[in-house]
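Human: If only I could read C-alpha cells as easily as an amino acid sequence. Underneath my words sits a plain record pairing an amino acid chain with its C-alpha cells. Take your time, and here it is.
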Amino acid sequence: MNFLQTIRERLSEQPDRIVLQEVRDGRMIPATCSQLESYIRTARAFLRRAGLSRGARCVLLAPNSIRWTAADLAIIVDGGIAVPLYARQAPHELVAMMKDCTPALILCGDEALRASVRDHWPDSPPAFLLEEVFSEVSAVEDPPATLADQDPVAIIYTSGTSGEPKGVVLTAANVTFMLGATNARLDQLMGPRDVPDQVFHYLPTCFAGSWILLLTCLTRGSVLTLSTDLTKLADELKLASPDYMLNVPVLLERTRAGTEDQVAKKGGLAQKIFEKGRAAWLHRQAGHSLGLADSFWLAVAERLVFSAIRTKIGPNLWALICGSAPLSKATQLFFMMLGLPVLQVYGLTETTAICTMDDPRHVTPGRVGPAISGIEMRLGEQDEILVRGPNIFPGYWSRPAETQAVFADGWFRTGDQGDVDAEGNWAVTGRIKNLIIPASGHNIAPEPIEAAIQQVLPAAKQVMLVGNARSHLAAILTGEPSREEAQAALDQVNAGLPHYKRVRGFHISAEPFTIENGLLTANGKFKRAAIAERYRDAIEDLYRAPSREP
C-alpha cells in the first residue's frame, strides 16, 4: 500500500474526526476527515477542468493552510507532479524555478503572489488562486490514479546555497518508505495510545522535511494544527497544546536565550536556584556523582524552576523535533535539563528529507541519531557522508549531468562532512563546499567556529567566516554587538582553537542576512558567495589592516 492509499484509508475510517486545523485570530478553524476528502475531490475537479494531465507539473505557491494540503494531495491523486514553492521567496527566483520545471498550471495563495509571477513572467502558464480552486462545489468521485513505485509525485527545489536551485524529483516509493520510517520513530516516542497525537506546525510545508511531517500526520491519524501568523507563535502554541512539533535550530536557540535572559532579569533567589541547579545537572550529565549540596540545588531547581519553564514552553510537550541544521549541544542539553528532549533528524531534500533520526530511548546530545532502518551510511573522502537506500531520489529534474555528479558507485554524495560514534550515532560537522582553505592550506569547516562565536556573543544575530586563500580567518557579524564585546567573544573562542582556526578580524553590519536582501536561502541558510560579494570591500579592508594576534 502506497502513502496515498494509506491516507485515503485513514480519512475514510473516521469521517467526523478532526484531522487538520488552522489557528486564525486566536481561534481554531478545523477540518474533519470527510471535509478534507471533500476539498480534495473539489480540487481534483478544478484541476481536470484546467487541463492538468498525468505527469504534468503544477506549482503550489501559497502559505500553509488546509486548502494547500488538499490542493497538494489533489495534484498527486490524479497522477500530476506537485511543485511546492516558498511564497516568501524573491519573485525572480520563483520564476526561475518555474521555468525550469515547465508547469502546466500555477496555484497561488493570493492575488499579490499571482501578480508578482505575471510581472516577472508575462507569458507564464495559467495561474489560479486557491480561492478559485475551491469556489465551485463540484467533485471527482472516481478512484485516484494508480501510482507505480517509480512515479514522480513531487519536485522540491534545493535551497541553492552554493549555486542555482535544482529540482529534486521524489517518487511514490521514496515517500512511502520515509513515512513508514517516521511513523516507526514516533511510535517509539509516543508509545501505545488511544488518542491521536496533537502536533503543531509552523514551518512552510513546501520544504521536504516539513512536507514529510504533514504526510506523516495524515497517515498517522494525528491532529495537525497549522500556524498562520509567526508573529503570534507563542499564543498559537499555547492554544494548540501539542505533544510534539518540528523546529529549526534558530527557534530553539532563541527560546533558550530568551529564557536565560528572563531568569537573569528576575535575579534574586530564582536566578540562584536556576544557576546552581543547572551546574549540578550538567555535572551529573557529565557522569559525575553529586554531593549533598548539589543534590539539594538540583532537586529544588527541578521542582520550582525547571518544571515552570517547561510548562510555559508547552505543558503537554513530549519532545521537540529539530532538523534543517545541527543544533548546538549546549541548547540540546538545556532542553533536556528542563525534562524536554530534543530529537534531532538529519537529511537532505535528495534523501526524502531524512537519513538519521534520534532514538527517543537513547539520545546522544550533539549528534543527530543513527541511520534509520533500511538506509546505509558511510564516510567517503574528506569525511563526506555517503548514503544509499530507498529514500534516495532518482535525480534532478532535467539535469542528468548534475544527477550523475552526486552519485559515486551507487552512493549518494551528500556534500556534508561528518563522523559516527561507536553506537552508530552520526554528527554533521560541516559542508564540503563551505570549507575555507586559507593560505596555510588547512581545510577548515566554518560552521562549528561560527556556532561557538554565536554562543558567546548573543548580540550578534549571525556569524559568517571568510578567509579562502587568505592569511587568516575573519568574521562578518550582523546585529549590534559592540566592538569590545565582539573582540572578547573572539578571544574566548580562539583560546580553545589551534592557531590556523583562530579568527583574527571582524566586520560588524547592523543589517542582518535575510531572504529579502538575497543573503539567505528560502530555508534560512547562508548564501555564502552572495554575502562575500556584498561585503567585498569590508572584507578587503579586514585583510589590509594588520591582524590581531590572540
Q: What stands out?
A: The chain has three domains: 3-243, 249-315+317-432, 435-544.
